Design the sequence.
């Protein structure tokens, strides 16, 4: 698989929807993840990321304009011991609770499927990062309708052991803008990951479509110590 420029991937797509990047810094010392949200409606755009414990939560920027919180207010990032969970919906809680009961990442998601927002049937995308004893691996999942048919749910899990330095994988909800929005297809894209959290945050934020971008979360976790740095960028201020 050819490595793609994450900057170019984002610049070339006005509406990838919500996206997760997981990988390893170019110097090999950090586990890296990023999660962004975009929006076309006023309800979707009326959001910010706020820190909550070791994770983050979406929150209405202007509570008076919040019309339907069901699919837009959730915790995208939660930490369970040495595992960091990143998703595009409330399945973050499903994974957290399942893995806390000794279920696997994949087993935890068996109780969930794509979002009930026909005709888009937005895929649920999820990631799990596992750091232990100086080792690091991660997995990504997508739950999607059967080519737009909500009577079936297609489930895909991709696992990456001992990821290479400077490499990451990028999965997002939509192939591109459209009505209905076409679901992501194929396996997560191989993309580049930078060493510096501030430079990478700036690169990602600036590459996202100016009109549609809403919020960005980036975290670099030291693989040896587990200590982490976080950056949050919100369009609404």
Sequence:
């Amino acid at each position: 698989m050819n490595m793609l420029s994450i900057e170019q991937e984002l610049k070339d797509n006005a509406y990838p929807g919500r996206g997760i990047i997981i990988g390893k810094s170019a110097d090999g010392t950090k586990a890296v993840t990023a999660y962004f949200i975009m929006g076309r409606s006023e309800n979707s755009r009326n959001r910010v990321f706020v820190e909550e414990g070791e994770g983050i939560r979406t929150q209405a920027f202007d509570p008076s304009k919040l019309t339907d919180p069901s699919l837009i207010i959730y915790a995208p990032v939660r930490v369970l011991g040495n595992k960091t969970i990143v998703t595009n919906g409330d399945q973050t809680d499903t994974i957290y609770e399942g893995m806390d009961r000794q279920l696997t990442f994949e087993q935890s998601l068996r109780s969930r499927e794509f979002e009930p927002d026909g005709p888009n049937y937005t895929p649920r995308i999820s990631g799990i990062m596992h750091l232990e004893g100086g080792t690091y691996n991660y997995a990504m999942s997508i739950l999607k309708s059967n080519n737009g048919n909500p009577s079936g749910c297609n489930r895909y899990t991709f696992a990456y052991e001992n990821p290479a330095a400077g490499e990451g994988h990028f999965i997002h909800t939509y192939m591109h803008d459209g009505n209905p929005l076409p679901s992501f297809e194929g396996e997560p894209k191989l993309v580049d990951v930078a060493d510096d959290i501030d430079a990478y945050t700036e690169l990602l934020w600036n590459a996202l479509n100016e009109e549609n971008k809403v919020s960005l979360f980036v975290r670099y976790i030291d693989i040896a110590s587990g200590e982490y740095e976080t950056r949050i960028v919100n369009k609404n201020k």
